[in-house]
Amino acid sequence: MRTKHAFRYVGTPDPMTEREAYHCEKYIKKNKDKMVLKGQYLIDITALLSLFHLDCWNCRSVHRETCCEGGQPYSVEKWQIPIIEKEIPEISRRLTDEQVKKSLQKEGVWDERQLVGTIRMRHGNCLFYQENNGRYGCAIHAYAEEQGHDVHTLKPFSCQLYPIDLIDTGENILLTAVTEETSSFSRWGTDYLEQFYCASQERRRLAVHVSDEMFALDGYRPAYEWNLPLLRYLLQEEAEEVEKILANRYNQLSVQV
Question: How do the domains of the chain map onto residue ranges?
Answer without folding.
Answer: 8-57+162-256, 68-158
